[in-house]
Amino acid sequence: MKLKVAVIGGGAAGFFAAITAKEHLPSAEVTILEKSTKLLSKVKVSGGGRCNVTHDCKDPYELATFYPRGGNYLKKAFQQFHVVDTLEWFLKRGIKTKTYPDGCVFPVSNDSQTIIDCFLEEANRLGIQVKTSSGVARIDRKNNSFSLLVNEKECVYDRVIVTTGGHPKRSGLDWLDSCELSIVDPVPSLFTFNMPNHPVRKLMGTVINPAHVKIEGTKLQASGPLLITHWGMSGPAILLLSAWGARVLQEKGYEFAILVNWLHDQKEEELKRSLQKIRRSNENKMLVNFSGLPITQRLWEYLLEKAGIPTVMRWKELAGKSENKLINILLQDRYEVSGKTTFKEEFVTAGGVSMQEIDVHRMETKKIPGLFFAGEILDIDGITGGFNFQAAWTTGYIAGKSAVTSR
User: Fold this and answer.
1) Residue 162 φ then ψ, to 5°
2) Given strand 153-157, what is the order of strands in its sheet?
3) Is the CB of residue 196 less than 8 Å from the CB of residue 50?
4) What total number of domains does the chain contain?
5) Same-domain pairing of 228 and 356
6) Same domain (yes/no): 155, 216
């Protein structure tokens, strides 16, 4: 009898798990069940359509520190499959990659379709069945097999790997209730900050790199490029805060304030000395025409206006309250945030099936032998930069291998 393996979900983790299972046991009958009509849809849009396949952090322990949730479990998982293995996996299949200065790794083609085609070709070569429009409504354990309710029909499999991705609401995981697993309520991660009607939005397109941002009233803070958009603020500094603060910000109803240091890590005394030096060298220049600071001209003009400094003021006239206001705005510029926006089309969720339910060495549920989970349906999520895909490859690999090999 052939071992029958069902992979529920035709995304990144699903294809990786299916391919791994078939490669480790060629005689197995492996089927991918995807409820929609599209396969690998998140791969398609990731990285602006370029697909950020992983991040160039080759130390498994350091790699695990980039995951706000699940990092401790991934430390163990990365011992089996991590960044070096990912790069070798793609290279073996003819896909060369390029590493950028920020550590992000993309296919040399700069086209996510390259990755999609690779998975589809591998699945076809290995004889993996891929069924779209095949939604699974229920999983039931029956003796040593599993009964899946697929489009209201019962289908029986020996092993099941669930890779349905993240769900923005708990209701999206209700179909797993029959498995009686502990589920951490999902909340959004990796989102940008909305500032409705705020005048800063007129600076859309402005990038300050690096800036330092704090969530007022919390210990949450992050540094990196900050991008002003037509709806508020984005960029790595903001996305880092949204990831590490996913649950805190959800509890606040996405109504909170941030403090921006436009000069990254400069302190008040250091800035005062810098301003004094600029003043001595440029005393007759108008402030509005020259900042002498590492910020854009548009932002400088905006901050002067926000500080109430007259456009006709010259550097030699900057003193007292005006100087203090300017220093405060440069180092602790306060903005009210009201709402969030998904970062591009790359929604990521914090939450999902609790890792306490999972044997991370096999990605198998402790309660139900033969049932495996991989990818973002687990309570694992990383910051932006290729980390979420790496978690998908790693957990997918382990689940796929374990599903066709005995303990």
Assistant:
1) -100, 120
2) 136-142, 145-150, 153-157
3) no
4) 2
5) no
6) no
Domain that holds residue 66: 4-188+347-403
Q: 201 with 336, same domain?
A: yes
Is residue 165 over pLDDT 70? yes
Instruction: Decide which of 342, 368, 392 is a domain's last residue.
Output: 342
Take residue 239 and report the two structure tokens written for it: 């996305």
Quickly list DSSP for 315-379: GGG--HHHHHHHHHHHHSEEEEEE-EEESTT--EEEEEE-GGGEETTTTEESSSTTEEE-GGGBS
Per-residue pLDDT, 301: 97
What is the mean predicted confidence (pLDDT) over 169-185? 94
Q: The tokens 């003021």 sit on which residue?
A: 313
We report the CATH number of the domain holding residue 66 as 3.50.50.60
CB 227 within 8 A of CB 255: no
Position of tokens 């591009």?
344
For the chain, helix, strand, coil in percent to 5 are 40, 25, 35
Domain boundary among 342, 368, 383: 342
What element of type H or E holds 269?
helix 268-281
Are 326 and 358 in the same domain?
A: no
CA 127 to chain centre: 32
For residues 331 and 395, state if they share a domain: no
Alpha helices in 8-128 (DSSP H): 12-24, 41-49, 60-63, 71-77, 83-92, 112-126
Confidence band of 311 (pLDDT split at 50, 70, 90): confident
Distance between CA 310 and CA 96 in Å, rounded? 56
Q: What is the pLDDT of residues 251-288, one digit of tens each?
A: 999 999 999 999 999 999 999 999 999 999 999 999 99
**pLDDT tens readout for residues 102-161:** 999 999 999 999 999 999 999 999 999 999 999 999 999 988 899 999 999 999 999 999
- Residue 346's pLDDT band (cuts 50, 70, 90): low
Residues 139 and 229 in one domain: no
